[in-house]
Prior knowledge:
The protein is elongated, with a radius of gyration of 18 Å. The chain folds into 2 domains: 11-138, Rossmann fold; 148-216. A 10-stranded mixed β-sheet has the order 4-3-2-1-5-6-7-14-9-12, with helices on both faces. The protein has 4 helices and 14 strands. The protein is α/β, with parallel strands linked by helices and 218 residues long. It starts with 10 loop residues before the first strand and ends with a strand.
Amino acid sequence: MPIQTTKAGTAWLITNHSPQSIVSGYSFIQMQDIVIAIDKGYEYAKLLGLKPGLLIGDLDSLAQEWTGSFEDDLEILRYPVEKNETDTELAILNALERGYRKIVICNDLGGRFDHALALVQNLSLGEGKGARIRIESADQIVFLLDQETHLEYPAGSTLSLIALSESVELIGSKGLYYPLDGLALDSKQTRGISNRLTERGAWIGKKTGRVLAIVTIL
């Protein structure tokens, strides 16, 4: 499928670890958005009262009783169980091909640790394509820092920064308990863990490097 014109909406990826609620709130999903159910995520989407426009994956974990209740307008893309990509990666690639440049992976970040790390790898898929991808659980948001990042989260929320490249150089910050002015982060150190937002509307400027950000709403 060729890459289409960028769409204004957001692609919401409902995984088989989607929580009952996410930080943004499922009610935030708009008409111009698309809900993509990933394998057993279809069950969660229906239980959450969402209407998926696409079901994608190898469907190896989807209960048989659900397969007979698919809507007539539901698009289904089924892949073999033995493949190189995870179902979530396939969903992201498909969303990008459809022109979506805002993607939210709904996942409680529980379960297998290797799957959680794979989700972090998935965040990099949007780099170079002008896409912003984030993971949302009930109380956490995980994303990569842009050159300038604005944080619209409640004061008191915890912010942790993890260097994904060997070294990171930050320009500065506003609205954080520990200022980041000229701070260097190293991939072998934990210096960026457990900062705190002192106000809604915090800001971070980055000069070089790749940084994983985790906001925990308290």
